[in-house]
From TrEMBL, chain A:
<dbReference type="GO" id="GO:0009279">
    <property type="term" value="C:cell outer membrane"/>
</dbReference>
<dbReference type="Pfam" id="PF00691">
    <property type="entry name" value="OmpA"/>
</dbReference>
<keyword id="KW-0472">Membrane</keyword>
<keyword id="KW-0998">Cell outer membrane</keyword>
<feature type="signal peptide">
    <location>
        <begin position="1"/>
        <end position="23"/>
    </location>
</feature>
<dbReference type="InterPro" id="IPR050330">
    <property type="entry name" value="Bact_OuterMem_StrucFunc"/>
</dbReference>
<dbReference type="InterPro" id="IPR006665">
    <property type="entry name" value="OmpA-like"/>
</dbReference>
<protein>
    <submittedName>
        <fullName>OmpA family protein</fullName>
    </submittedName>
</protein>
<dbReference type="InterPro" id="IPR006664">
    <property type="entry name" value="OMP_bac"/>
</dbReference>
From TrEMBL, chain B:
<protein>
    <recommendedName>
        <fullName>Tol-Pal system protein TolB</fullName>
    </recommendedName>
</protein>
<comment type="function">
    <text>Part of the Tol-Pal system, which plays a role in outer membrane invagination during cell division and is important for maintaining outer membrane integrity.</text>
</comment>
<dbReference type="GO" id="GO:0017038">
    <property type="term" value="P:protein import"/>
</dbReference>
<dbReference type="Pfam" id="PF04052">
    <property type="entry name" value="TolB_N"/>
</dbReference>
<dbReference type="GO" id="GO:0042597">
    <property type="term" value="C:periplasmic space"/>
</dbReference>
<keyword id="KW-0574">Periplasm</keyword>
<feature type="signal peptide">
    <location>
        <begin position="1"/>
        <end position="22"/>
    </location>
</feature>
<keyword id="KW-0131">Cell cycle</keyword>
<comment type="similarity">
    <text>Belongs to the TolB family.</text>
</comment>
Length: 184, 443
């Protein structure tokens, strides 16, 4: 099984360079959040290099964790509904979580950025949500537990003038989980 | 694209039948030529019934102001100030010699008779240069609260007699009223007079609603609602303000509805499993619906030709959003938009006259409103690249209303522009508003 390993490596590299405050993290004094956390916090004692162990929150979801730890949102290129590596890694974790929490069902909300017409963006949001749904199904989640809805450009995450970095945050699909709504 | 050639061709093609007047009538404005100098026009209304109704003079002034605002708003007329004109009265002979000494070319003399609960507005239009009346005098009777409509009817008559175009002032516009921040915007369907007066809200603020569209008779407004969790098409009776869903399949998003010109069909977009196609449903039997496009591309925003034989729509089948025309049964789709590289086109809407298709054009520098012929030739942009979208035609096909976003919080405002692009102005409305849909001329 060489493929999953390379995927994990790529995911680690990607999530590292996509940290929002890269520079700030590097220049700040090195502190260990687990040591300083109130009540001792959670400490990870596993061997990262040992086969079968994975860092929590990165490519595996520990049973009982909150869904948010998997990452709720994946992002898309302009006018595209194609999942990138980072998006696929997030969705792999979402699929794990959904497999562990069978009482939950999911609604995938597709969104678009401001450029483009209202109608086209509604259709594009649906395409993105479906793309996420199909990936989750391919990872073993029952199709009946995932519903899609598109908000087009009606519910942006950020208010943008026209900065590319801001618009990118609005081209997204957000997975929302809830109990007892399974079956659509 | 050769813009100049397109404009002159348009001018030649636009000589419309001009009922009741000779083609060489001196008092005549050709809208298609783009008016550089507005025609000076004087409006004089006198009041009857002021003895019994103390507010009659004030009402006359309001009626005069509405007529003046309608005409001035076209960009074709300049309303003369009262002081620089000779004396005139409704039943007096017009002193043409005195009027010719002024700059004024057209003269409206009228009378407002205020009664108990009703008002009568009558007027005569005179051509100062020709020294004769232009058409017969006309009188409009109306209940007191209908004085605005009576004023619009008078202005419509004057506009039609001088331009030869169909009227449009006595019409209503459906729109989406917006409030709250862009990330959690509250939207509701409203209707207003074409000039922004008399706003009436048709939906509550708790459901996200989009894109209202009038039926050809103006009695029904279609819109898209998120109330059920999935966007569905609603049909709303404007008179009773009651809405019923036309679509309700929870696995299919339905949106972008538009009535056929005869009011018997609705073209709309329906999405299943991520793929959006154009469908038709019968108004009398909405559960009967059939697709007219197929395939993995996004096909949306259908709009009918005035004869009901064709649909223009937006599709990304070529890789980016472009405009296509097909027969109403879905056969013979033909791409009509071929802009520069990187330009995409959407939200097409066919002029009620059939001679133009308006659209929103998007490039790296922003979006703007434009028009082209139904075969794609003669493309003309009517606004500078910015955040303009969603054009809708006035009933006479000579003016468009659209949405412009501005400011840091993307506040939406309605603007109108004539087909020459010269007369651009904001619609006077206190609320932020988007997605305008111009209704028919009222009877």
């Amino acid at each position: 099984m060489r493929l999953p390993l390379t995927l994990i490596a790529a995911t680690l590299a990607l999530s590292a360079c996509n940290m929002p405050n890269d520079a700030a993290v590097v220049s700040a004094p090195v502190t260990d959040p687990y040591v300083n956390a109130a009540g001792g916090g959670a400490v990870y004692r596993g061997d990262v290099n040992a086969p079968g162990t994975r860092l929590p929150g990165v490519d595996s979801i520990a049973p009982g964790t909150d869904f948010a730890a998997a990452g709720t949102t994946v992002y898309f290129d302009e006018s595209q509904a194609v999942l990138n590596d980072e998006g696929r890694a997030t969705l792999t974790r979402q699929a794990q979580w959904l497999t562990q929490n069978a009482a939950y069902s999911a609604v995938v909300e597709g969104h678009a950025d401001e450029p483009g017409t209202r109608e086209f963006n509604l259709a594009l949001g649906a395409r993105r949500a479906t793309s996420v749904q199909e990936y989750l199904v391919s990872k073993g989640v029952e199709a009946g537990r995932i519903r899609t809805v598109s908000f087009g450009k009606e519910r942006p995450a950020s208010i943008c003038a026209s900065e590319a970095s801001c618009l990118a945050r609005n081209r997204r699909a957000v997975t929302v989980v809830s109990q007892s709504q399974a079956g659509v | 694209m050769n813009r100049r050639a397109a404009i002159s061709l348009f001018g030649a093609a636009a000589i419309a039948p001009f009922a009741g007047f000779a083609q060489d009538a001196p008092l005549r404005i050709e809208i298609t030529e783009g008016v550089m100098r507005p025609m000076p026009l004087a409006i004089r209304f006198e009041t009857l019934g002021a003895g019994d109704h103390p507010d009659a003079e004030a009402l006359t002034k309001e009626i005069e102001d509405v007529i003046a605002a309608d005409l001035q708003g076209t960009g074709l007329f300049e309303i003369a100030k009262p002081q620089d004109a000779p004396h005139a009265g409704f039943d007096m002979t017009v002193d043409y010699i005195a009027w010719k000494a002024t700059d004024i070319e057209a003269l409206v003399i009228g009378q407002v008779a205020v009664g108990d609960g009703n008002v009568t507005v009558r007027f005569r239009l005179y051509d100062v240069f020709a020294g004769q009346p232009l058409g017969d005098g006309i009188q409009f009777d109306s209940p007191r609260e209908g004085w605005r409509r009576a004023s619009h009817k008078v202005a419509d008559q004057i506009y039609t007699r001088i331009t030869g175009e169909s009227p449009y002032f006595d019409s209503r516009i459906a729109f989406i009223g917006e409030s709250g921040p862009a990330t959690a915007r509250v939207k509701r369907v409203g209707v207003m007079d074409y000039d922004g007066a008399d706003v009436k809200w048709l939906t509550a603020t708790d459901d996200l609603v989009l894109s209202p569209r009038f039926s050809p008779d103006g009695r029904t407004v279609l819109y898209t609602s998120f109330a059920s969790g999935v966007p569905q098409i609603m049909s709303l009776d404007v008179e009773t303000v009651s809405a019923t869903p036309l679509t309700n399949d929870p696995r299919a998003m339905s949106f972008a509805p538009r009535y056929s010109p005869d009011g018997t069909w609705i073209a709309f977009s329906r999405e299943t499993a991520g793929n959006t196609d154009i469908w038709l449903m019968e108004v009398r039997n909405p559960s009967f619906a059939k697709p007219v496009t197929r395939g993995p591309s996004i096909d949306t925003a259908p709009s009918w030709s005035p004869d009901g034989q064709h649909l223009v729509f937006e599709s990304d089948r070529s890789g980016s959003s472009q405009l296509y025309v097909m027969r109403a049964d879905g056969s013979g789709p033909t791409r009509i938009s071929f802009g520069e590289e990187g330009a995409s086109y959407g939200e097409p809407t066919w002029s009620p006259r059939g001679d133009r298709i308006a659209f929103t054009r998007q490039t790296d520098t922003g979006s703007s409103i434009g028009i082209m012929r139904p075969d794609g030739s003669g493309e003309q942009l009517l606004s500078e690249p910015g955040k303009d979208a969603g054009p809708s035609w006035a009933p006479n096909g000579r003016v468009l209303i659209f949405t412009r976003l501005s400011g840091d919080d993307q506040v939406a405002q309605l603007h109108s522009v004539d087909i020459t692009g010269r007369n651009m102005r904001p619609v006077a409305l206190n609320d932020a508003a988007s997605d305008p849909a111009w209704g028919p001329l009222l009877p």
